Amino acid sequence: MRRIALLIVLVLGILSQGAPAQEEFKGKVVEKVIVIGNEAVPKETILYYISEKPGKKFSPKQVAKDIKNLFKLGYFENISVDVKEGKRGVILRYFVKEKPVITDIVFKGNKAISSKKLKEELGLISEEGEETKLQKPLDYKYLDQLKQKIEEIYLKKGYPGTEVYYTIERVSPTKAVATFVISEGQKANVCSIEVKGNREISSGEIENVLVTKPKSILRLRFNAPLSQSNLEEDVKRIRELYYKEGYLDVEVGEPQVVKVGKGCYKVIYQIVKEGKPYKFGKVEFEGNRLFSRKDLLKLSKKVRPGKRFNREAVDKLVRKIIRKYGELGFIFANVVPEVKVHPETYTADVTFHIYEGERAYVRWINIKGNVSTRDRTIRRELDLYETGIFNTIRLERSIRRLFNTGYFENVDVKPKVVEGTNKVDVNVNVKERLTGMFSVGAGYSSVSRLVAMVGLSKGNLFGTGDSGSINLQAGSKVFDFSFSYNHKWWLDKPQTLSIGLYNTRYEYFTYTSKKTGFSALVSRRFWEDWKAGVGYTIEKDKITDIDEDAPNIIKEEEGSETIGLATAFVSRDLRDNRFLPHKGDYIKLTTQVAGDYLFGDKNFYKVIGEYAYYFNFNDLPIDLELPFIASVHAKVGYAEAFGDTSRLPIDYRFYVGGDTSVRGFKWGEAGPKDKDGDPEGANRELIFNFELGYDVTRMLRLISFVDVGGGWWDKYKLGDMRKSAGLGIRVLTPMGPIRLDIGWKLDRKSGESSSQWHFGMGSYF
């Protein structure tokens, strides 16, 4: 008010001083209008708000209005006008003094909250972490608002006595810096909580839903700020807890805050009235045409006539109904529950008012961020298309498919409703990852001696989604050549053609192994999230140069044989990201058959079933950020030889133990062994993996795990399953995920190591 009064006095002073001089020119033609003193504000902007123009008749009243309008712009500290005689009329000169522009805001005295955090809370730092460049004319109302917000921030952090004032410092005639001086005062902590008046719901249950928590060293809660906004939220949460249990007549008093020590307070929550629990009366739906009452009631077993009233169940049913409509493309659907209470019978009728709206259609799909990847490669993975129906399930599936190509570090798909229509623009923004790798190196081991290595792999070849690799290892004891190629959308269908060639020779201590083979596999997506594939492998194996002390399983394989193997699989992948999943599940069933009718020498078959489930703790119905992911993986394998083949070939047995089965054990160590203690493989396997992961960043995850598994011949012996536990790390790199684990045996046997390190690339399961 004081500033407004000063402004009025200033304007009146200007007008009173200039009025007598201006009156003598009244009615004369304006020859020229001049603006003097402006630096930041363009002359054209000022002249736009001055109605006195050359050629018009001069009016002192109009000049007064112009000054008033210019002051309203907020750019000027002072404005004055003088009038003088010209050659063809009068000349008006507007003298302006601009307010300084605030170019920065700084803080002093803030210890509990950093300046960066304060700027984030005040909206002076963008979501991308970039600081806003201020160019704001001095505005005391704006600064007062910032002052109030700072006090509210400190109040929320538990500093109720915080005082804030600001000063303006000119750094040049046209620039200034606003400094907020903060006196934080003493922090108020909650040391204890007491709940009174509750009989139907325990104090522990009530305390669990509160935002306000007491200090607790055991729970690593060293700070427990006392905040008025949190106390108001607590009252709301207590009511919601009672509503959830059906107590609709509950009355919660204002929390009482009692000081019990220096900076230490006790909060007392008073339940004034609990009342009796209500039951659901009538449950009706209005406005629903697409779904019947029966269809909608199936979405919740808790919302039923006669069952105890549960407000949370009502809200969940609302969300499920909206999602059900969204699955059919009615994303504009809205559901409003109306609760009618009958205190005389302690029942509550619920009517769900449903506005179905129109079905949504895709207008445009806009793709950004792809440099190497062709638009067509991205569009074919989308389950949305222009002019087609838009729905939430298709949106989620599109995001999942793009992530699972492995070509993008980040995928952001956002729908934008076209105002005034039932159409949606889908904006797809991708960030590509490095998909090519060339490696040259050398290695040495006691088995292979000196080995030279060269490899070339490329994913998303030419932006088409295809991938291929060539690898070569060569040395005096080793030769390993492999080639693979995956052709996506073969024949312009959602199917992949994969081919591979390999030729290897390994000279071990007791024998030499040679393999030459060719494989081909065609897999196709069907039923939206399912995939099936069939393939064939022809491989020639040769075991030679066997020493007398070689394991028996090697001696049994001496000579040459040809394996003709047919493979078929069916799978469904609902993981949000197959490389570093956060939620969803995965199921796969694989069968393999080898026989002489497939141009081979061996007859056997294998059946392998896998299931994995991932749960994100952030999906729990609580307000806490819990960056934990729990997962469980189960794998069962069954194999048999038939015909004139008496024993399963060595390379097609199950070897339990190692970095992809039961960690903490060496390869095959958790399965059967021969008389010399060497793994001999099995024709039965059963493995369970349990993990708990913590996301340090979006690219880094720490995990703990427990593995249980075993391998046997001819029957499953669950009592003989081996057990391990350990820790690990997952790093999502441009070349794919890298994993490093260490596992400890929980049932260590004589002669076994206590632990084992495991390193690998790719997803664990």
From TrEMBL:
Residues 1-21 form the signal peptide. It is found in: Membrane. Keywords: Cell outer membrane, Membrane, Repeat, Signal, Transmembrane, Transmembrane beta strand. Residues 28-99, 278-357, 360-433 form the POTRA domain. One of its GO terms (cellular component) is cell outer membrane. The keyword Transferase does not apply. GO terms for biological process: membrane assembly. Its main location: membrane. It holds the Pfam family POTRA. PANTHER family: SORTING AND ASSEMBLY MACHINERY SAMM50 PROTEIN FAMILY MEMBER, TRANSLOCATION AND ASSEMBLY MODULE SUBUNIT TAMA. This is Outer membrane protein assembly factor BamA. The lineage of its organism: Bacteria, Pseudomonadati, Aquificota, Aquificia, Desulfurobacteriales.
